[in-house]
Design goal:
Layout: E1 24-32, E2 35-42, E3 53-60, H1 74-83, H2 91-103, E4 108-115, E5 118-124, E6 132-135, H3 141-159
Antiparallel strand pairs: 1-2, 1-3, 4-5, 5-6
Amino acid sequence: MDFEVRRLMKRCAVTDQELRPGAVYYSALVQEGGEIHRHDFCAEAWQGPPERTIAWWSGHVPSHDAQRTNWAPQDVMIHLFEELADQTENADLRYLLTLLMVRRRIFRVLRTEQRDGREYLVVHSAKLADEASVEVVEPNEERKRVIRDSLQQLIVDRAA
């Protein structure tokens, strides 16, 4: 399955209201027919991920003058991804890193799988020797903040 993830549209898919700078938004990648579509939602309209969602995330709408984060090169991010493969205590960190790499088009989601009652994303990159299977581990809000800060620190530090 090959698809492009478009950028934030800045309009809520439910209410059609403008997503203003600084506002919380939610995005979901939803399988519709044989295609994957991104839907963006304002916080008030978010009722959880829609049916057939393969990935979702939240963020803040950037301001027009927001400074972009300079992420590490792809090779550095892939190396971190591979380092986390055997760290079961950081499965949620690896999952969120995977979503970031899908968003940055480093990885491509091939499919989802169910094994032993758990869901996995199977991803591919030209830079990986083989497909990679990543357990879907959704952290709670506090853990998301810790992971976001850790990821940014890890990735930005390694880029320097």
